Amino acid sequence: xxxxxxxxxxxxxxxxxxxxxxxxxxxxxxxxxxxxxxxxxxxxxxxxxxxxxxxxxxxxxxxxxxxxxxxxxxxxxxxxxxxxxxxxxxxxxxxxxxxxxxxxxxxxxxxxxxxxxxxxxxxxxxxxxxxxxxxxxxxxxxxxxxxxxxxxxxxxxx
Length: 158
Prior knowledge:
Distance between the termini: 90 Å
Largest sheet: 4 strands, antiparallel
Radius of gyration: 29 Å
Number of helices: 3
């Protein structure tokens, strides 16, 4: 039995995290698609990843990779072949679709098809304006005197 979580309290106290809540809700739903064909996700470096999909029996023309707004979709559709003559058919050739949600600033850097394995290389590239930067502290005499509270002098007695 799957446990369901209510994210409503988090929606009331946070701003801009809609995408994360949607990912959490989608992850807890039962998957309607199978995990066929099998795939691996490997972290190959600090900011690089590789998805490898085992696509035995598929040719390069049967495969399609699409990346749009943080969603990577890998689909495979084989051309119709005559099924006559088979005594046993163990290599599946049914169509498939895998969807991978990618984090912000992760992009596809390349794809390779070799020996029945489709490999997709990903890299995370954080824009310069989003990287941490050192802020220098300046001491400006005009700013420090304006920031100091004004002192009130008491009137002199005659």
